[in-house]
Prior knowledge:
Blueprint: H1 3-18, H2 26-48, H3 51-58, H4 63-69, H5 72-87, H6 90-97, H7 103-119, H8 126-136, H9 142-165, H10 172-190, H11 193-199, H12 207-234
Helix pairs in contact: 1-2, 2-3, 2-4, 2-5, 2-8, 4-5, 5-8, 5-9, 6-9, 7-12, 9-10, 10-12
Amino acid sequence: MRKSESTGRRRTAKRAVKNLPQREDGAQTRQQLLEVAGQLFAEHGYARATSKEICERAGTNIAAVNYHFGGKEGLYAAVLEEAHARLVSIELVTTTTQGDADAGGKLRILLTQVVGEIARRDRDTWALRVLSREVMAPTPMMDRMISSQIQPKLKLVAGMIAQAIGVPPSHPAVSRCLVSIIGPCGFLLITNPDWQKQVFPSFTLDPQTLVEHMVTFALGGLQAVAASVQRSNRR
């Protein structure tokens, strides 16, 4: 990483902390630690970021990490959870999947959120960079994010997909559909935009256009899978 980029992100972290509501309570300190830790983990990764530097930047005592998070591991686990919640919140997934819209409308809402966040990942936001690092080099703390963030959201989306293709959520076809729909999001998350352009010269990450394509593609796949399931049931 270039020195200017690192310096710019440190300044962003300081501004983020400075702009937080100035309340002298535990919630404020906890949020300060999350924001600064998110920036440092995004810059250096889990192994190289230290609790000492996090606390120095956050303007807190070194004991604050242990008090609020039980140590560096707990702080990193909380950062991962916060990062995934910023990518797509459980509230949005719940209200969308349980709403009255059809499958296409629900997918459009969810993909608009996820693809939109990924498109903004290089604009001084640490959440996507932390997630990218974790996906590429998983730590033991990923288990907590999977259980607290990923699995509850996938369960809701799986129910929506199961309804769309006319099978129970436990049907193997549901998991296959999930992989097909979510897989492109993972590709966008972990691959460098410059590399994407090298491999796919005509590809542009225009969120609205890409979301419409992904919804169209997903609906076509869901319809084909539903027809295949119906044929199997008639045999």
